[in-house]
Amino acid sequence: MNHRPLTISLGEIPDPDRIPKYMTAQVIRPDRFGEPKYAFVEEEIPVPRLKPDEVLIAVRAAGINFNNVWAAAGYPLDVINQRIKEGELENYHIGGSDGAGIIVQIGNKVEGFKIGEEIIIQPGSFDSEDAWIKKGGDPTFSSKFKAWGYETNFGAFGQFCKVKSTQCLPKPSNLSWEESACFMLTGATAFRMLTHWNPNHIRKNDLVLIWGGSGGLGAMAIQLTRKFEAVPIVVVNSLEKGNFCISLGAEGYILRNEYSHWGSINRSQSSDLSEEQMRSFQRSIRSIGFKDPNIIIEHPGEDTIPTSLFVCDREGMVVICGGTTGYLGSFELKNFIKHQKRLQGSHFANPEECKKVLKLVADGELSPALTKVFSFLEIPKIHQQMKENIHPYGNIAIRFV
Question: What is the protein's quaternary organization (predicted)?
Answer without folding.
Answer: Homotetramer.
